[in-house]
Amino acid sequence: MNVVITGATGGIGYAIANHFAAQSHRVVLADLDESIIEQKVAELRQQGYQAEGCVLNVTDADAIARCSAQYPADILINNAGIQHVARLEDFPTDKWRLLLEVMLTGPAMLTKAMLPGMQQRNFGRIINIGSIHALIASPYKSAYVAAKHGLLGFSKVVALENGSNNITINTICPAYVKTPLVEQQIKAQAKEHNISEQEVIDTIMLAPMPQKAFIDVDEIAATAAFLCSDGARHMTAQTLVLDGGWTAR
């Protein structure tokens, strides 16, 4: 099967690509930087895996059209994400819009482009990588929280519209994952709160989580694979939360 993954050269995306490639799927690494894409594709091919690369800006309609035409997805994983931390009154308007474009409009438009092929083949699995912030909120993250909350609603609607086509769409919502994006958030939060980076980890990020641990990228990859398995064929419009007990409070 063709597995198209956006944001595929980053921590979560590459872990998912590696996991699916190891299961004998053909993975398509879609991301912005062609040189990094080529490097990651080469790494997978050196392991004997089937891998292709696609330069894709999910905010670019033409790029979406090219990618979906060249690499029609049996499995689509909307993973691309960015972050900006600031109070709303200090939040640059263009940055606010960009976060929504990348993490809500982008997944919607790429899904729209891939759906006709899935409908024709009567098979499709769409997985959105959400966040704990699709369920709860944190200060200084208005755009990110808005986008991730919107992703859940979007997923439910698409699931309802395609219930008779053997197409499922679900959202994985992890708590903090130790990736370069989160490392940047730690620095930004430390500056915003005027505290140390370790204090950000201990008192902001991991404080609400009973297990007091970052989620591992391999957990997300394995959850995505489960959602594509026959055992999950009737799971759709669902939110799978990997949060160490955070939302039980």
Overview of the structural elements:
It comes from Alkalimonas collagenimarina. Keywords: Oxidoreductase. This is 3-hydroxybutyrate dehydrogenase. Its EC number is 1.1.1.30. GO terms for molecular function: 3-hydroxybutyrate dehydrogenase activity. Helix 4 (93-121) runs parallel beside helix 5. The protein starts with a strand and ends in a 7-residue tail after the last strand. The chain has a seven-stranded parallel sheet with strand order 3-2-1-4-5-6-7, sandwiched between helices. The mean pLDDT is 96. It is α/β, with parallel strands linked by helices and 249 residues long. The protein contains eight helices and seven strands. The protein has one domain (2-175, 216-243): 3-Layer(aba) Sandwich (Rossmann fold), CATH 3.40.50. Strand 2, helix 2 (34-46) and strand 3 form a beta-alpha-beta unit. It is 47% helix and 15% strand. The protein is globular and about 50 Å long.
Query: Segments where pLDDT lies below 50 for 5+ residues?
Result: none
Our count of domains comes out at 1
Estimated helix fraction: 40-55%
Give a count of the beta strands, DSSP E runs of length 2 or more. 7
SSE pattern: EHEHEHEHEHEHHHE
- Provide the CATH architecture: 3-Layer(aba) Sandwich
CATH superfamily: NAD(P)-binding Rossmann-like Domain
Name the shape in a single word.
globular
Strand percentage: 15-25%
Kindly report how far apart the N and C termini lie.
40 Å
- Content-based structural category: alpha/beta
Q: What's the story with the biggest beta sheet?
A: 7 strands, parallel
The CATH C-level class name = Alpha Beta
